[in-house]
Amino acid sequence: MSFQISLQTLTSCSRLPINLTDKLSSCTFAIIAGAAFGEKCKDQDAFILVLKETLELLFGLCVTNMYPSVKWLDLISGMRYKIEKVFQRTDRILQNIVDEHRDKMQTEAGKLQGEENIVDVLLKIQQHGDHEFPLTDNNIKSNHTG
């Protein structure tokens, strides 16, 4: 996966307006996902899409931000439902990524020494952790509801 925006991509659209913000944000998300998950996970593209949706929800209009004392407005506006759906999709994608890395570690036992990413390191800590507070899959996913 290339993390560069090629000039060919930009010049091929020379007669069309180019959304440089979209191109740069896609590149940024790809770099972050690559650092966290490694070269390529099967769910990496889905993760990037759900991350974009999350950012749109975060920066979009939220009624309870204007009227924090009236929490039921989120139910009427549908915002709570949208947030819950995005959370469920994110959780499912992240669990698939964790499971994929766990399977890869078991099948390739020790072959990945120089190619570890954040998920691999956290799974090793989880496996060999004799810690006071054990590291769970929800901790690795940063899922605070589990």
UniProtKB/TrEMBL annotation:
Pfam families: p450. Keywords: Heme, Iron, Metal-binding, Oxidoreductase. InterPro entries: Cyt_P450, Cyt_P450_sf. Belongs to the cytochrome P450 family. PANTHER family: CYTOCHROME P450 71D11-LIKE, CYTOCHROME P450 FAMILY 71 PROTEIN. This is Uncharacterized protein. It comes from Vitis vinifera.
